[in-house]
Amino acid sequence: MSQSNISVNENGWIKWYCNLEDHHFFCEIDEFFIADQFNLYGLKQLFDHFEEALQMILSPNTPTDEDLEDDQFLELYNEASELYGLLHARFIITPQGLTLMKSKYLQGRFGVCPRVLCERQNVLPIGLSHDLRTSRVKIFCPRCQDVYSPKKQMSDVDGSFFGSVFPHIFLSVFSELNPTQPANEYVSKIFGFKVHKKKGSKFQIQQNQTEMYYYAEDHIKRLSQISNSQQQQSQQQIQQQSQKNDEEAEKKQKEALNAIQKLQKQKQKK
């Protein structure tokens, strides 16, 4: 489908879909983005009626009440919804998509963090997987850096419609939106005294946590170089020790020969 065949529709299916109840996390995808074949790469094999679903998304008409009661229409609508969602995940990490999502974020359209100590920090939508029908959409808090379920369940909004990288790309591009204050931490106290090494104490939990390390590629290379260097040093030490042992053995052999020669000379004199 070429861009020349696309006309921008101000009141088409896309606008109608994004204005449905519990669809306020969505932004309206530019139709020229959908028309670009590059952006559709890898999606066709996921759907039985890909072309029909794409036509529905780009339709200038909105579904009627009769359409929504037609089982065949609803089957196609489900495919169109999932196709739009996967395209949405790709669109919102483009400059245009990020700008639209920034406007929603600043307006608090995605909600606030349910954690009391985050003091109503605005959140961002996130998916736990890029695969369809794995989990529903979640929310990510930039302040406490944790993931929660949204206030409304949004049963028909899949996590893959936003992907797992969106919040991190968003906060990298709009670094000024990163919270300036760290997350407040709750400290267990009894009559004003901190609880240590007891059940319910965060101190005890931290003590029991297993420490984990994640190495970047350059760190792995450095470790590999250190390991190789250690192996070389070990080999050199073995070679040096072996050479030293050979020299000592040769020295002892010479001493033994000299002793035998002396004894033979003494016998000849007698």
UniProtKB/TrEMBL annotation:
- Biased composition (Low complexity) is annotated at 226-243
Record field: compositional bias (Basic and acidic residues): 244-255
- Highest rank taxon of the organism: Eukaryota
- The annotated region (Disordered) lies at 226-270
Which GO cellular component terms, listed alphabetically, does the Swiss-Prot or TrEMBL entry include?
A: cytoplasm; protein kinase CK2 complex
What span is annotated as the signal peptide, if there is one? none
A molecular function GO annotation: protein kinase regulator activity
Xref: Pfam families:
CK_II_beta
Which InterPro entries does its entry note?
Answer: Casein_kinase_II_reg-sub (IPR000704)
- Report the sequence similarity comment from the record: Belongs to the casein kinase 2 subunit beta family.
Q: How does it assemble?
A: Tetramer of two alpha and two beta subunits.
| Protein name as it appears in the record | Casein kinase II subunit beta
